[in-house]
Write a structure and sequence with these properties.
InterPro entries: ET-Flavoprotein_bsu_CS, ETF_a/b_N, ETF_b, ETF_beta_N, Rossmann-like_a/b/a_fold
Distance between the termini: 58 Å
Cofactor: AMP; FAD
Keywords: Electron transport, Mitochondrion, Transport
Subunit structure: Heterodimer of an alpha and a beta subunit.
Oligomer: single chain
Order of helices and strands: EEEHEHEHEHEEEEEHEH
Number of strands: 12
Strand order of the largest sheet: 7-11-6-1-4-5-12
Structural class: alpha/beta
CATH architecture: 3-Layer(aba) Sandwich
Subcellular location: Mitochondrion matrix
Length: about 260
């Protein structure tokens, strides 16, 4: 098997424990003064890449683990965290604060990075928890012409550049097999990400960190989608109580459920 050069895209998003609030203009959610962190699915991707190296599960070994993020200056924080978790180096594609990138644009950025870094495996989260688009991995595989395996709950390596990826489906699991180079998207049951300790956080500050722009990668931020309006979900109505099964059936009929 070829030595792995793994590219791991990561995204800075509103922390999963924070309840987002719609902004006053109803064009999105409020981000100012809100805690941000690494997208949880991307944490899985970083962890899995580091485990592949530590467990020596790939016969050809791991030559390089490079993390990349496209975002404002504060996106550097999640890149530093990823390096503290074990990534070798980072690329920050600087984007103006408030400038959003659509999934296709991100996929084009990653395609350019793959070609620049000579990566042969991309491991990324199946979706980001801010827009929940779940499109970037599939689009990247399409642009590169590479095989893809989505929503991975297990990744195993075989002979001859072969990779087996298992994912959970309704009623069981599904395993697919493909050859490198390929794109893998990660799901929650894949692993449990480690915490970066202080020693590794300090070491991360000395690791290579490259800053570039969209134009450096030959990508323009073309807008194809327009957000018309963002609103809070309607408040949930209170439930009612029934005395017995006959009362339940009557209520369901009244509501047109049966």
């Amino acid at each position: 098997m070829s030595a792995l050069r793994i590219l791991v895209p990561v995204k800075r998003v509103i922390d999963y424990a924070v309840k987002p609030r719609v902004n006053k203009t109803q064009t999105g959610v409020e981000t100012a003064g809100v805690k941000h962190s690494m997208n949880p699915f991307d944490e899985l991707s970083v962890e899995e890449s580091v485990r592949i190296r530590e467990k020596k599960s790939a016969p050809g070994g791991v030559e390089d683990i490079c993390v990349i993020s496209a975002g404002p200056p504060k996106a550097a924080d999640v890149l530093r965290t990823a390096m503290a978790m074990g990534a070798d180096r980072a690329i920050h594609v600087d984007v103006k604060e408030g400038e959003e990138l659509e999934p296709l644009t991100v996929a084009k950025v990653l395609r350019a990075a793959v070609e620049r870094e000579k990566s042969n495996l991309v491991i990324l989260g199946k979706q980001s928890i801010d827009d929940d688009a779940a499109q970037t991995g599939q689009m990247l595989a399409g642009l590169l012409g590479w095989p893809q395996a989505t929503q991975a709950s297990r990744v195993a390596f075989g002979e001859g550049d072969t990779v087996e990826v298992t994912k959970e489906v309704d009623g069981g699991v599904e395993t697919v097999r493909a050859k490198l180079p390929m794109v893998i998207t990660t799901d929650l049951r894949l692993n449990e990400p480690r915490y970066a300790n202080l020693q590794n956080i300090m070491k991360a500050k000395k690791k290579p960190f490259v800053k570039m722009s969209l134009s450096d990668l030959g990508v323009a931020n073309e807008r194809r989608l327009k957000i018309v309006k963002v609103t809070e979900p309607p408040p949930r109505e209170g439930g009612g109580k029934v005395e017995d099964v006959d009362g339940l059936i009557s209520k369901l009929k009244e509501l047109g459920a049966i």
